[in-house]
C-alpha cells in the first residue's frame, strides 16, 4: 500500500486518537504540576469602641476572579505527586524509619489514600484474573460436554454477567446482598447474626468486590477457552484415550497445552480490564472500605464545590505508569517477535 | 474393569454437570430475581422477614391490590423522566457505533494491507491506549472542555467515546481484514479500481460479518460507559447509566428505591435482546482477537 493511500485511510482514526487520547495525556501531565489557588485572604482592621481588632476573611470576589483567570491554578512542580494524598514520601519515610514490625508498616501504609487505592487495585487485578481463568476454563469444559441441543441457551445465560453494564450489574448484586436483600438476609439467618453485613467490614467488602469481578469476567474467559476447545485436534485426544490416559491426564497433557497461547491473550485482556476497576466500587457503595486508582480520580473530579484537577491528574499519571508497567512484558515480547519476523 | 471405567465416567459427568448448573444459577439468577422483584413494592423486594415475600408479594397485594405493580416503572420513566435518559442513550450509542465503524473500517483496512514498520507502531500504541483506564483521560478533558465551552453536551460525549473506542475498533477490524485475502482487492485494482473503490465495492461487501460484530462491541462499549458520560454530560443530557447513578443519591432518602430498580431493569432489557439475537456474533467477536491475532 502506498504511503499516501495509507495516510488517507488511517487519518480519521489517527486524528481522533491524537486529539482525544494523546493530547489529554499531555494535558494531564501539565495539570498535575499545578494546584488549586488558595483562597484570597484580606486582613482588615476593625476599630470599635473597645480597641482595634485584626480580622481575616476570604475575599470571595477576588478568589473567583483569580480562579477564572488562571483555571489551571498555581504552579506546584512535583509537589502534588509527593504530598500525603499521593506518593506521601514524607509519611512513608516516617513509617519505615520507625515502626513496630511488618504488620504495623502495612496498616500504616494502608491509611494513606494512594496506597490504599493501589493495594486494592493490585489485589483485585491479580486475584480476579487467575480466578476468572480457572472458572472460565471449568465452564468451558462443562459446556463442551453437554448435548448440542442445550448449548445455545447455556451460552446465552453464561454471557449475561459479561454483557451487563458494570454499574448495573454491581447494583443488581448489591441489592441482593444488602441486609434486607435475598442473599444478605439469608446469610444473616444462616450465621444467626442479625448484625451481619457484607458492607461493614473491609475484608468482606473486598471479598464481595472480588466475587463480583470473577462473576463479571468469567464469561469472557469461558468463551475464548470454549472456542479453543473447538479447534482441539480430535486424533490427538483419541490417541491419548487409546493410550489409556484418564480424563484428568487428557486435560493436563493435551487440552491445557493446546489452550496455553489463548490463556496469555485472556490474561492480558483480563488484566487490562481489571486494572481499571471502578464501577463496582460506586455500585456497591464500597468507597469506605475499598478504593481503586480509577475511583480515586473519579472522586477528585466529582467534588461538588471544587474539583481537584491537580490531584486527579497526578493520580492519572501514576495510574498510566502502572498500566505501562503492567503491559511491559507483553510489549517487550511483541517487539521481539516483530524484530524476529522482520529479519 | 469396564464397569469401573464406566462408573468413574458417570461420576465425572455428574460432577461436571452440577458445576455447570451452579455456574448457570450464579450467572442468570440475579437478573431474573431483579426482573421479578421490579414488579413488586419495596417492602417485598427488600423484605426483612423472608425472601419468599419477594416472590409471593403480600405487601404488593396490600398496597396496590394486584400481584404485580408498575409503580416503579411509572415513577422512573414518567415522574423522574427516565425516557429522556433513554433517548440520550439511543442518540449516543447510534452515533458512536456508526462513526466508530466508519473510522475503524478505514483504519483497520489500511493497517491490514500495509506491511510497513509504522503499522506495527500504530497497533502497539493502540494497545497501550486500549489499556488506559478511561477515567484517567477524563481528567484531561474537563479543563479544556470548560475553556472551549463544549462541556455537557451530547456531541462532545459522542466524539470522545468514538476516540476512546478507536484503539479497540481498529484492532478488531484489523484482525478481521487480515482474514480476507489481499488478492481480492489487488485484482480489483488491476481491473482499474482505485484503492478506495476496491475497499468500498469489493472488500466491504465480504466484510459484513466482521463489521456487524465490531459494531456490536462498539455499541456495548458506549452503552455500558459510565466514566465518560458521568463526567462529561450535564444533568439534562445524562444517558441512562449516569442517570441511574444520580437516582441512587435521592431514592434512598425518598424511599423510592424501586424507581432505581425499575430503571436498572429497563436498561438491562436491550442488552438481553442483544445477546439473544447476536449471540453467535458476540462469541465470534470475543474470540477474534485470540484466534486470529
UniProtKB/TrEMBL annotation, chain A:
Record bears the keyword Cell cycle: no
Primary location: membrane
Single GO BP term: transmembrane transport
Recorded superkingdom: Bacteria
TM annotation in the entry: 7-30, 117-142, 154-177, 203-229, 250-272, 308-332
Keywords from the named record: Cell membrane, Membrane, Transmembrane, Transmembrane helix, Transport
Protein's membrane topology: Multi-pass membrane protein
Localization, UniProt: Cell membrane
This protein's record includes keyword Lipid metabolism: no
PROSITE patterns, alphabetized: ABC_TM1 (PS50928)
Domain ABC transmembrane type-1: 118-330
Record InterPro entries: ABC_transporter_permease, MetI-like, MetI-like_sf
One cellular-component annotation, GO: plasma membrane
Pfam families: BPD_transp_1 (PF00528)
Protein family according to the UniProt entry: Belongs to the binding-protein-dependent transport system permease family.
Protein name as annotated: Sugar ABC transporter permease
Lineage of producing organism: Bacteria, Pseudomonadati, Pseudomonadota, Alphaproteobacteria, Hyphomicrobiales
TrEMBL record, chain B:
Membrane topology qualifier: Multi-pass membrane protein
InterPro entries reported for this sequence: BP-dep_ABC_trans_perm (IPR050901), MetI-like (IPR000515), MetI-like_sf (IPR035906)
Residues that span the membrane, as ranges: 12-36, 90-111, 118-144, 150-177, 198-223, 257-278
GO CC annotations, alphabetized: plasma membrane
Keywords: Cell membrane, Membrane, Transmembrane, Transmembrane helix, Transport
Gene3D superfamilies with a match to the protein in the record: MetI-like
This protein's name: Carbohydrate ABC transporter permease
Amino acid at each position: 500500500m502506498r504511503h499516501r493511500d495509507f495516510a488517507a485511510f488511517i487519518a480519521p482514526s489517527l486524528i481522533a486518537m491524537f486529539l482525544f487520547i494523546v493530547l489529554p495525556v499531555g494535558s494531564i501531565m501539565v495539570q498535575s504540576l499545578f494546584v488549586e489557588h488558595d483562597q484570597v485572604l484580606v486582613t482588615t482592621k476593625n476599630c470599635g469602641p473597645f480597641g482595634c481588632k485584626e480580622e481575616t476573611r476570604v475575599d470571595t470576589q477576588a478568589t473567583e476572579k483569580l480562579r477564572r483567570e488562571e483555571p489551571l491554578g498555581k504552579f506546584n512542580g512535583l509537589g502534588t505527586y509527593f504530598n500525603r494524598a499521593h506518593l506521601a514520601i514524607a509519611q512513608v519515610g516516617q513509617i519505615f524509619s520507625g515502626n513496630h514490625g511488618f504488620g504495623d508498616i502495612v496498616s500504616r501504609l494502608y491509611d494513606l489514600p494512594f496506597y490504599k487505592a493501589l493495594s486494592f487495585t493490585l489485589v483485585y487485578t491479580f486475584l480476579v484474573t487467575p480466578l476468572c481463568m480457572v472458572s472460565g476454563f471449568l465452564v468451558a469444559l462443562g459446556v463442551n460436554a453437554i448435548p448440542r441441543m442445550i448449548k445455545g441457551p447455556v451460552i446465552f445465560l453464561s454471557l449475561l454477567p459479561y454483557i451487563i453494564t458494570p454499574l448495573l450489574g454491581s447494583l443488581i448484586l448489591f441489592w441482593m446482598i444488602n441486609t434486607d436483600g435475598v442473599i444478605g438476609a439469608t446469610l444473616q439467618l444462616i450465621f444467626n447474626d442479625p448484625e451481619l453485613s457484607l458492607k461493614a467490614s473491609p475484608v468482606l467488602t473486598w471479598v464481595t468486590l472480588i466475587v463480583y469481578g470473577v462473576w463479571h469476567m468469567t464469561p469472557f474467559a469461558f468463551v475464548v477457552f470454549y472456542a479453543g476447545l473447538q479447534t482441539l485436534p480430535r486424533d490427538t485426544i483419541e490417541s491419548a484415550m487409546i493410550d489409556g490416559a484418564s480424563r484428568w491426564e487428557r486435560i493436563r497433557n493435551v487440552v491445557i497445552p493446546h489452550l496455553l497461547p489463548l490463556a496469555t491473550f485472556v490474561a492480558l485482556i483480563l488484566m487490562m480490564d481489571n486494572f481499571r476497576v471502578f464501577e463496582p466500587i460506586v455500585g456497591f457503595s464500597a468507597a469506605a472500605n475499598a478504593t481503586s486508582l480509577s475511583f480515586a480520580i473519579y472522586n477528585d473530579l466529582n467534588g461538588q464545590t471544587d474539583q481537584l484537577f491537580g490531584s486527579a491528574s497526578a493520580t492519572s499519571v501514576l495510574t498510566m505508569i502502572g498500566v505501562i508497567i503492567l503491559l511491559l512484558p507483553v510489549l517487550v515480547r511483541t517487539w521481539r517477535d516483530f524484530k524476529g519476523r522482520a529479519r | 474393569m469396564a464397569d469401573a471405567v464406566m462408573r468413574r465416567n458417570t461420576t465425572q459427568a455428574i460432577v461436571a454437570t452440577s458445576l455447570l448448573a451452579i455456574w448457570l444459577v450464579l450467572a442468570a439468577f440475579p437478573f431474573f430475581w431483579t426482573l421479578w422483584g421490579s414488579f413488586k413494592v419495596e417492602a417485598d423486594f427488600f423484605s426483612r422477614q423472608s425472601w419468599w415475600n419477594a416472590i409471593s408479594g403480600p405487601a404488593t397485594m396490600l398496597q396496590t391490590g394486584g400481584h404485580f405493580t408498575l409503580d416503579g416503572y411509572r415513577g422512573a420513566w414518567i415522574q423522574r423522566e427516565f425516557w429522556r435518559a433513554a433517548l440520550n442513550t439511543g442518540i449516543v450509542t447510534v452515533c458512536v457505533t456508526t462513526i466508530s465503524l466508519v473510522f475503524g473500517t478505514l483504519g483497520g483496512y489500511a493497517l491490514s494491507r500495509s506491511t510497513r514498520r509504522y503499522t506495527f507502531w500504530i497497533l502497539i500504541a493502540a494497545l497501550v491506549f486500549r489499556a488506559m483506564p478511561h477515567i484517567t483521560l477524563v481528567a484531561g478533558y474537563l479543563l479544556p472542555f470548560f475553556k472551549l465551552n463544549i462541556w455537557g453536551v451530547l456531541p462532545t460525549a459522542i466524539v470522545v467515546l468514538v476516540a476512546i473506542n478507536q484503539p479497540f475498533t481498529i484492532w478488531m477490524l484489523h484482525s478481521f481484514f487480515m482474514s480476507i485475502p489481499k488478492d481480492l482487492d489487488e485484482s480489483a485494482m488491476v481491473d482499474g479500481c482505485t484503492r478506495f473503490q476496491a475497499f468500498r465495492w469489493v472488500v466491504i461487501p465480504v466484510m459484513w460479518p466482521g463489521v456487524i460484530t465490531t459494531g456490536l462491541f462498539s455499541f456495548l462499549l458506549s452503552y455500558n460507559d459510565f466514566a465518560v458520560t458521568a463526567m462529561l454530560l450535564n444533568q439534562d443530557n445524562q444517558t441512562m447509566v449516569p442517570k441511574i447513578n444520580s437516582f441512587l443519591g435521592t431514592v434512598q432518602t425518598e424511599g423510592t428505591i424501586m424507581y432505581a430498580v425499575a430503571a436498572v431493569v429497563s436498561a438491562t432489557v436491550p442488552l438481553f435482546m442483544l445477546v439473544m439475537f447476536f449471540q453467535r456474533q458476540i462469541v465470534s467477536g470475543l474470540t477474534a482477537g485470540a484466534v486470529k491475532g
